[in-house]
Each structure stands twice: as C-alpha cells, then as structure tokens.
What does this fold into?
Amino acid sequence: MQIQAAVLYAPHQPFQIETVVLDAPQSGEVLVKLAASGVCHSDYHLISGATKHPMPVIAGHEGAGVVEAIGPGVTGIQPGDHVVLNWSPACGTCFYCQHEQPNLCDTFTGPIWAGTMLDGTTRLHRLDGSPIYAYCGLATFAEYTVVPQQSCVVIRREVPLQAAALVGCAVATGVGAAMYTTQVHPGESVAVFGCGGVGLNIIQGAALCGAGMIIAVDTNPAKMEIARQFGATHTILAGADSQHTLAAIRDLTGGRGVDHAFEAVGIPALQELTFAAARPGGNVIFAGLSAMGTATNLPGAIITRQEKTIRGSYYGTVHAGRDFPLFIDLYQAGKLKLDELISQTYRLDEINAAYDTLLTGATARGVIVF
It folds into this structure.
C-alpha cells in the first residue's frame, strides 16, 4: 500500500513528506493505522546526528492507533483493537526477559537499532523499491506502520488515542524511572534536572510514589509553573552558575542533597551536576539519552566514599504489557496527567515546525495527529 510519511534522508536536513510503500504484515507482524504520534527529542537526535542510524529513515517512536490487519501467527491481537506502541519489544525467552528485564531484550535490540524487522528486511520502501528504515522498529511519523506483535499493547477503546500515545515513551520512561528504576519511597526527596516530556513524567511519577519534596530544575522560566502542575513542590530556575543551583538544592535538604537525583536531558555536564545533587548514600538516575560517543566525568573517590548509586534508566525499567495498562488505569482514575502533557497538536506536514517549537523548550509535548 502507498502511504504518506515523514522521511529523513540525512542528519541536518528537514523531514520530507513523501508517498512511500508499506508492505503487508508478515508472520508475527501487525498493521496499525496511526492516530497520534508524540514529538520526542529522541527523534531529533537523528536530525542532529547525535544518534547514528541507517537512512533514509522514518522516525517516530511514541504512537497509538488502531489495528488494521494481522499477519500469520499473531495471537491476542485483532483488527479493530486500539493499541499503544512499545519501542522496546520483548521476546519473552531471552536471558533478559527470563531475568525480569524485558526492556533489555536482546532478541530485538539488534533489529530495532538496524531499523529492520526480525528477519533483517524492511517493510517500508521508496517508490523505486529501495528500503526505508524504521526508527525504533515503529516509524510512527507515517499514516500506517507494520510492527512486531510484541510492540502492540492493547488498551480499552474508550481511551483517547492522543493521550494514550504518550504512554509509549514519555510516560513510561519518566514515571517508570521513579516507580521502578529507583523506587522512590513515601516522604523521600527528589530533584529532576530537565522538565521536558520525560522530566515532567518523572515528577508526576515521584508524586505518585509519595515523595515529600520534588525539586524541578530547568533553564526555561515557562517550565516552572508546568512542573508545579505535575507535582513539583519546589522549582529552581537554573542559570550559567551550576554551583548556585547545587547550593539551592542543598539549602532545601539540610545541606545533604536529595535522596534521588534524576537527569532527563542527556547532557554530560548536567549529569555531573545531577550526581553532585544527590546526598551521600543517595541515588543518581540518568534517564536522558546522551549523544553517542559522549562521556561523563564522575569522581570514583566520591562514589566510593559517599556510597552513591548511579543507575541508567532505559524505558523506565517498565514491562510494557503490564505497565501500559496500569498507566492507562491511573489516567482514567484521574491520578496520572496525560491530557495536560499535550501542549500543541500538528498535522504530519507540520512536523518540521513541531520540532522548531520543541527546541524552544516552551512545550510539554507536541503531538502529530493523523
């Protein structure tokens, strides 16, 4: 079938809206008609070159839609089902899946980063037949997509798909980082560096866990009030002097630092500041995606002497099949903010404008609506 999609041909170029060819789903695969796709900074890393990936590529990894067709061997999914797409599918049988770490599944890791299906081929092509790769195995910046059945999490049909789409990345990554990666406990203190889509969800995840103090840190004044709406008890407008930010956090925590310090941007210097903001014996969680090849300088002597724990948080340590429905339940119960995350909606042909807006830092989340 022929569909409209946003294609990226090389770093530092804009997306091109084109007609492309999408093959029918093969064994174990599902055809989904997209309803909405979030505009995430991780996709921008393809444009900036911070993430290396085969091209041309159709980006987009935060989506929801309706199942149009299924391939042979698909079970538990039917045409008409509403699904949230999961960019870290799990096979259920590899070492990591068997050790309760499905977000690290190594069956899918290689194909996902190669932009192909499990068989090493693509379902997307240019009109001349040459391949187009799928970012994170999803390629949600298109009207339709074909994905592995493991990437589909069925949800109730009454849930708005615009809101549900955000569960597939920003919510899972942020809320999961607080709930699962470090397991914030009631009454504990938290600092979140960076209040974009992931950071705001770390904030509301910490609030769901009962954190007593949640400090939001960002350089954008517009983010201060938004962060409070999502559960921040304190806000710090960061400037060029990182020591001022660090001193403000310590002033709020009796000179110690916070129990859990989260970095949600992926900038090495900010990761180093996040490390310094955690108290002795505290936890440092890196949830932001750093550019490939960058390095972060963390002092080994302090790690040892202060017993700080440093953890990466990949997809919020979630189990998509278990946690996506849970997040939807929390949303429907009024305990998780999804609608409030959507600052602006766009058509697919407005995708470059959507990224221009994202880079200003003035929005919580933009959403492409099909």
In short: The chain has a mean pLDDT of 95. The chain has two domains: 2-169+317-369, 183-312. Residues 2-169+317-369 form a domain with the Quinone Oxidoreductase; Chain A, domain 1 fold (CATH 3.90.180.10).
